[in-house]
Amino acid sequence: MSPLLSRVNSTSFFSSVKKAEVRRQKAEFIGCNLILLFVLLLPNSTAHAHKVQTTTDVGATLHLEPNDNPRAGEATKAWFALTRRGGKVIPLTECNCQLAVYAEPYSQKEPPLLEPSLQPVVADKYKGIPGSEITFPRPGAYLLQLSGKPKKEGSFQPFALKFSVTVAAGSANTEAGNAHNTQVQKSNTEVNPSQSQGTPIWAIASLALAALGVSFAVLRSRSRD
């Protein structure tokens, strides 16, 4: 084989390898951006997650029913999967626990808005854990504080766990709650009508498509090189 033909074959081989690598990178870019687009367009309900708080040797996961989406004026079942370090359950019978509900923002000197009584409940794999029924008076941000001390000294350290909760408007709001919600919506509309609805899906989709466009531009530039 002549040196010229050998160089031609070698160039053709490396060119094929480069094209294959560009196609592979392009597929990876498209796949990653499609996954990003899918995640961004997931329904808002999937964003709700159980809230977890821990101290030195105690932790708790807050569950709100239904669907971790409390609504003002409607009864919400709240229960705390309270455990020691290592995962051992702390039942209410072993804890002097109290629950306090504050409306955000609040100062430490303010008394709780609500102090619901706690009852032992059975939920999922947990038995006898602290639970309560809460009716939030109006939409907005709240702080739930679960504090407790061991009934048996040395069982675990005293704790105070704080959970932030956002309450949506409900069909059974009180008059005060309705008036408050109407005023908030009016204020938000005057400032920026789009803010009251959150980020529109079309805006998220546009950002994702723009990311795809940039990816294609980069790959096209590489392929030309």
How does this structure look, described?
This protein has 225 residues and is an alpha+beta fold. The protein contains 3 helices and 8 strands, in the order αββββββββαα. It has helices at 3-40, 175-191, 201-224, and strands at residues 51-54, 58-65, 75-84, 95-103, 119-123, 126-135, 140-150, 159-167. Strands 1-2-3-6-5 form a 5-stranded antiparallel sheet, with no helix packed on it. Helix 1 packs antiparallel against helix 3 (201-224). The longest helix is centred in the first third of the chain and has 38 residues, at 3-40. The radius of gyration is 28 Å and the shape is elongated.
Record the SSE blueprint:
Layout: H1 3-40, E1 51-54, E2 58-65, E3 75-84, E4 95-103, E5 119-123, E6 126-135, E7 140-150, E8 159-167, H2 175-191, H3 201-224
Antiparallel strand pairs: 1-2, 2-3, 3-6, 4-7, 5-6, 7-8
Helix pairs in contact: 1-3
